[in-house]
Design a protein that fits this description.
With about 170 residues, the chain is of the alpha+beta class. It is built from 7 helices and 4 strands, in the order ααβααβαβαβα. The structure holds flavin mononucleotide.
Protein backbone atom coordinates (compact mmCIF):
# COMPACT_ATOMS: atom_id res chain seq x y z
CA UNK A 1 0.00 0.00 0.00
CA UNK A 2 1.22 3.47 -0.88
CA UNK A 3 2.23 5.39 2.24
CA UNK A 4 0.12 8.42 1.33
CA UNK A 5 -2.95 6.20 0.89
CA UNK A 6 -2.23 4.56 4.23
CA UNK A 7 -1.88 7.88 6.06
CA UNK A 8 -5.08 9.24 4.54
CA UNK A 9 -7.16 6.06 4.64
CA UNK A 10 -6.42 5.01 8.21
CA UNK A 11 -9.24 5.67 10.65
CA UNK A 12 -9.70 5.16 14.36
CA UNK A 13 -11.74 1.95 14.63
CA UNK A 14 -13.87 1.39 17.72
CA UNK A 15 -15.92 -1.66 16.70
CA UNK A 16 -14.38 -5.06 16.01
CA UNK A 17 -15.32 -8.48 14.66
CA UNK A 18 -14.75 -11.37 17.07
CA UNK A 19 -12.28 -13.01 14.63
CA UNK A 20 -8.90 -13.60 16.30
CA UNK A 21 -5.77 -11.73 15.24
CA UNK A 22 -2.98 -14.30 14.68
CA UNK A 23 0.18 -14.01 16.78
CA UNK A 24 2.35 -13.58 13.62
CA UNK A 25 0.37 -10.47 12.75
CA UNK A 26 0.80 -9.05 16.26
CA UNK A 27 4.54 -9.71 15.97
CA UNK A 28 4.58 -7.95 12.60
CA UNK A 29 2.96 -4.90 14.20
CA UNK A 30 5.60 -4.87 16.95
CA UNK A 31 8.39 -5.35 14.41
CA UNK A 32 7.14 -2.35 12.41
CA UNK A 33 6.80 -0.28 15.60
CA UNK A 34 10.48 -0.91 16.24
CA UNK A 35 11.38 0.66 12.88
CA UNK A 36 10.21 4.07 14.07
CA UNK A 37 12.82 6.80 14.42
CA UNK A 38 14.05 7.52 17.95
CA UNK A 39 16.40 10.07 19.48
CA UNK A 40 19.92 8.64 19.30
CA UNK A 41 18.32 5.38 18.15
CA UNK A 42 17.71 4.61 21.83
CA UNK A 43 14.41 2.83 21.00
CA UNK A 44 12.82 3.51 24.39
CA UNK A 45 9.63 1.55 23.77
CA UNK A 46 8.09 -1.49 25.43
CA UNK A 47 4.94 -3.31 24.31
CA UNK A 48 2.52 -5.32 26.43
CA UNK A 49 0.25 -7.69 24.48
CA UNK A 50 -3.07 -8.33 26.21
CA UNK A 51 -5.51 -11.02 25.14
CA UNK A 52 -7.02 -12.06 28.49
CA UNK A 53 -10.61 -10.85 28.95
CA UNK A 54 -10.12 -10.11 32.64
CA UNK A 55 -7.19 -7.76 31.99
CA UNK A 56 -8.99 -6.10 29.07
CA UNK A 57 -12.05 -5.57 31.29
CA UNK A 58 -9.92 -3.85 33.92
CA UNK A 59 -8.31 -1.69 31.21
CA UNK A 60 -11.80 -0.56 30.15
CA UNK A 61 -12.31 0.69 33.72
CA UNK A 62 -8.93 2.44 33.77
CA UNK A 63 -9.86 4.00 30.41
CA UNK A 64 -13.00 5.60 31.83
CA UNK A 65 -15.40 2.98 30.45
CA UNK A 66 -14.25 2.82 26.80
CA UNK A 67 -15.84 -0.59 26.25
CA UNK A 68 -14.51 -1.14 22.73
CA UNK A 69 -11.13 -1.95 24.32
CA UNK A 70 -12.65 -5.18 25.65
CA UNK A 71 -14.26 -6.04 22.30
CA UNK A 72 -10.92 -6.09 20.49
CA UNK A 73 -9.33 -9.56 20.31
CA UNK A 74 -5.93 -8.11 21.11
CA UNK A 75 -4.75 -4.96 22.85
CA UNK A 76 -1.24 -3.55 22.66
CA UNK A 77 -0.22 -1.23 25.49
CA UNK A 78 2.67 0.93 24.36
CA UNK A 79 5.01 2.16 27.07
CA UNK A 80 7.87 4.65 27.11
CA UNK A 81 11.03 3.52 28.88
CA UNK A 82 11.89 6.83 30.52
CA UNK A 83 14.93 5.41 32.31
CA UNK A 84 16.48 4.35 29.01
CA UNK A 85 16.05 7.81 27.50
CA UNK A 86 17.28 9.50 30.70
CA UNK A 87 20.53 7.56 30.47
CA UNK A 88 21.13 8.97 27.01
CA UNK A 89 19.71 12.48 27.24
CA UNK A 90 18.92 13.37 30.86
CA UNK A 91 15.70 15.20 31.66
CA UNK A 92 14.96 16.11 28.00
CA UNK A 93 15.21 12.44 27.09
CA UNK A 94 13.06 11.35 30.03
CA UNK A 95 10.30 13.93 29.56
CA UNK A 96 10.24 14.61 25.82
CA UNK A 97 12.24 12.29 23.55
CA UNK A 98 10.86 9.06 24.93
CA UNK A 99 7.29 10.29 24.43
CA UNK A 100 8.04 11.49 20.88
CA UNK A 101 9.79 8.20 20.04
CA UNK A 102 6.93 6.16 21.44
CA UNK A 103 4.35 8.25 19.55
CA UNK A 104 6.18 7.49 16.29
CA UNK A 105 6.10 3.77 17.16
CA UNK A 106 2.38 3.99 17.87
CA UNK A 107 1.71 5.59 14.48
CA UNK A 108 3.69 2.77 12.82
CA UNK A 109 1.42 0.25 14.54
CA UNK A 110 -1.72 2.09 13.41
CA UNK A 111 -0.56 2.37 9.80
CA UNK A 112 0.66 -1.23 9.61
CA UNK A 113 -2.60 -2.46 11.11
CA UNK A 114 -4.52 -0.55 8.45
CA UNK A 115 -2.30 -1.86 5.66
CA UNK A 116 -2.94 -5.43 6.89
CA UNK A 117 -6.73 -4.96 6.90
CA UNK A 118 -7.01 -4.49 10.66
CA UNK A 119 -8.58 -1.67 12.62
CA UNK A 120 -7.10 0.03 15.66
CA UNK A 121 -7.53 3.07 17.86
CA UNK A 122 -5.01 5.12 19.84
CA UNK A 123 -6.52 5.38 23.33
CA UNK A 124 -4.79 7.96 25.46
CA UNK A 125 -7.53 8.72 27.96
CA UNK A 126 -6.86 6.39 30.87
CA UNK A 127 -5.89 6.61 34.52
CA UNK A 128 -2.19 5.99 34.31
CA UNK A 129 -1.59 4.67 37.84
CA UNK A 130 -4.49 2.24 37.48
CA UNK A 131 -3.11 0.93 34.17
CA UNK A 132 0.32 0.62 35.78
CA UNK A 133 -1.10 -1.49 38.59
CA UNK A 134 -3.20 -3.74 36.30
CA UNK A 135 -0.25 -4.42 33.98
CA UNK A 136 2.45 -4.53 36.69
CA UNK A 137 4.45 -1.82 34.95
CA UNK A 138 7.59 -0.91 36.95
CA UNK A 139 8.72 2.63 37.81
CA UNK A 140 10.70 4.28 35.04
CA UNK A 141 8.31 2.90 32.42
CA UNK A 142 5.31 5.04 31.46
CA UNK A 143 2.21 3.63 29.73
CA UNK A 144 1.49 6.01 26.83
CA UNK A 145 -1.26 4.38 24.77
CA UNK A 146 -3.72 1.52 24.84
CA UNK A 147 -4.32 0.23 21.30
CA UNK A 148 -7.25 -2.17 20.81
CA UNK A 149 -6.79 -4.06 17.53
CA UNK A 150 -9.03 -6.35 15.52
CA UNK A 151 -10.76 -6.80 12.21
CA UNK A 152 -12.99 -3.74 11.75
CA UNK A 153 -16.76 -3.89 12.19
CA UNK A 154 -17.26 -0.29 11.09
CA UNK A 155 -16.00 2.04 8.36
CA UNK A 156 -16.17 5.56 9.77
CA UNK A 157 -16.12 8.69 7.63
CA UNK A 158 -12.91 10.67 7.98
CA UNK A 159 -13.23 13.41 10.59
CA UNK A 160 -12.38 16.83 9.15
CA UNK A 161 -8.84 18.18 9.21
CA UNK A 162 -7.54 21.71 9.60
CA UNK A 163 -6.46 22.87 6.17
CA UNK A 164 -2.84 23.45 5.18
CA UNK A 165 -3.51 27.19 5.22
CA UNK A 166 -4.74 26.97 8.78
CA UNK A 167 -1.69 25.17 10.12
CA UNK A 168 1.30 26.38 8.11
CA UNK A 169 3.55 29.31 8.97
CA UNK A 170 6.28 30.58 6.68
CA UNK A 171 9.64 31.77 7.94
CA UNK A 172 8.33 32.75 11.39
CA UNK A 173 5.26 31.78 13.40
C1 LIG B 1 -2.94 11.16 21.93
C2 LIG B 1 -4.26 10.59 21.43
C3 LIG B 1 -5.18 10.17 22.36
C4 LIG B 1 -6.39 9.62 21.93
N1 LIG B 1 -7.24 9.10 22.85
C5 LIG B 1 -8.40 8.54 22.45
C6 LIG B 1 -9.25 7.93 23.41
O1 LIG B 1 -8.98 7.88 24.61
N2 LIG B 1 -10.39 7.36 22.95
C7 LIG B 1 -10.73 7.34 21.62
O2 LIG B 1 -11.78 6.80 21.28
N3 LIG B 1 -9.92 7.90 20.67
C8 LIG B 1 -8.77 8.50 21.07
N4 LIG B 1 -7.91 9.01 20.13
C9 LIG B 1 -8.26 8.94 18.69
C10 LIG B 1 -8.74 10.29 18.16
O3 LIG B 1 -10.02 10.57 18.65
C11 LIG B 1 -8.73 10.26 16.61
O4 LIG B 1 -7.42 10.00 16.14
C12 LIG B 1 -9.22 11.57 15.98
O5 LIG B 1 -10.57 11.80 16.32
C13 LIG B 1 -9.08 11.57 14.46
O6 LIG B 1 -9.76 10.47 13.88
P1 LIG B 1 -9.00 9.43 12.94
O7 LIG B 1 -7.95 8.73 13.82
O8 LIG B 1 -10.03 8.46 12.45
O9 LIG B 1 -8.35 10.17 11.84
C14 LIG B 1 -6.70 9.55 20.53
C15 LIG B 1 -5.74 9.99 19.61
C16 LIG B 1 -4.52 10.48 20.05
C17 LIG B 1 -3.49 10.89 19.03
Amino acid sequence: MDVVDAIQGRRSIRAFQSKEVPQEIVEKLIDMAGWAPSAGNIQPWEFIIVRKSEIKRRLVEAALGQTFIEEAPVVIVVCANQSRSYQGYGVRGETLYCIQDTAAAIQNILLTAYALGLGACWVGAFREEEAREILKIPQGIRPVAIIPIGYPAEAPQPPSRRTVNQIVHYETF
